[in-house]
Task: structure prediction
Amino acid sequence: MNLLRLSAINNKRYKRYNRSFHISAILASILILFFIGITTSVKLVFANIFEDNYRAKEITVYSFKWDDEFVHQYKASVDHNVIALLARNESVEQISVKYRIMDEAFALSVPSVPFLVPATIYGVDVDYSTFSKTEVLAAQEEYGMTGEPVVCGRDFNPTDVRSALIDENFVYAMGIMDLNAVIGEKFGLFYDNEEAVIVEIIGVFDYRIGCFPEWDNRDYIPDPNFSELSGWVGPIIVSADVMDYFPDEVTNDVLSGQQRVIFDVKNLKDVEAVCHLIEGYTNNDMVSSLRGVKKAISVMKNISVFAFIISGVIAVFSLACVFNSIVSRMRSQRKFLKMMTVMGYTRGSVVRIYLFGHFITLLKIIITYALLIYLITFIVEYALKPHYASLSASIKNAFIIDFKIVLLYTLVFIIITSLVTALSAYVQTGKYLRGVR
Result:
């Protein structure tokens, strides 16, 4: 009789034992794959948190304080010596100190052409970074900026005074198509119709990192199709010393002068320590997304530990059931084995008969557990996406199991169970062959 036909008859006759193996194998496979998949996913999320989540690694200290009733704000600039001291900390990657003058509209002439500047002029401390990492990376990820923020000329350096960077959109709005043409040009800032300071343009920055607010563009840009984005920066960024040329009643206002100090921390694990360090020097308002990050990380860790313990225990038990069902199936078929040996089937033929039947059963098992594990991981992905998305925007479908993991497990599962089946058939057949002799 054909070996495949004999294998099919054997499977049908001993269906109850095959069903036990079928259930045990599916359960074990789902749990093992779930354990491997969720462990891999959690590691992936954690790795991306430390590498990509620049927002979570940013600490902002505002240059004001609240009164005792938390009703009114008053000016409280962060001391320059404190900033310099914190900048030397090995956990701090960079610092950006932001300034602002906010009053009635200023007059601006670039060059010899009058323009009305919005009522807000921004500045930075040239001893530190012009743009924070969040500002640069957000422009790259959200708006498609590919190069450095300064597209023409140069960025600020510590020796710069009465200097400015200008938005590339602002250059085009003046009818100047060559960005290099404005480098070295000087313009005057006027306050109350009097010239306050002459400022030199040293560079042009990418419009995607900051440009005119949308409501201002109508006054400056004659072409309605002109590219525009709303941003915090405004048309110009001046060196912080420019602020000194304006009256104290302007720069000492809570809305003007030093506004905030942004700390970019190297590693997420150091954010809390840097927060405590800053609190030791100032009690100004401080903002960090650390709490939300820590809560999300806690949820992820708890899920990982829970999955490890539960899946590990049940997977070991299920694997034991799988191997036990294979051995039990062979023992239950003693009469069938004895009959085949009496009829002259060799040990190799018997092993092949059981392997054929085993492969038929495996095909059903693999299809079933593959469908179920993807269904389960889709549900897990839906449940956990709000948590990991708040940690790293670059990760997509983190908890949907990787096809390579399923494929590798399937190959290992086929090899191991086939070896156990072949070995059991070989050993049991040997007993009856010795009896026949």
User: Anything to note?
Assistant: The two ends are 23 Å apart (CA to CA). Residues 290-332 form the longest helix (43 residues).
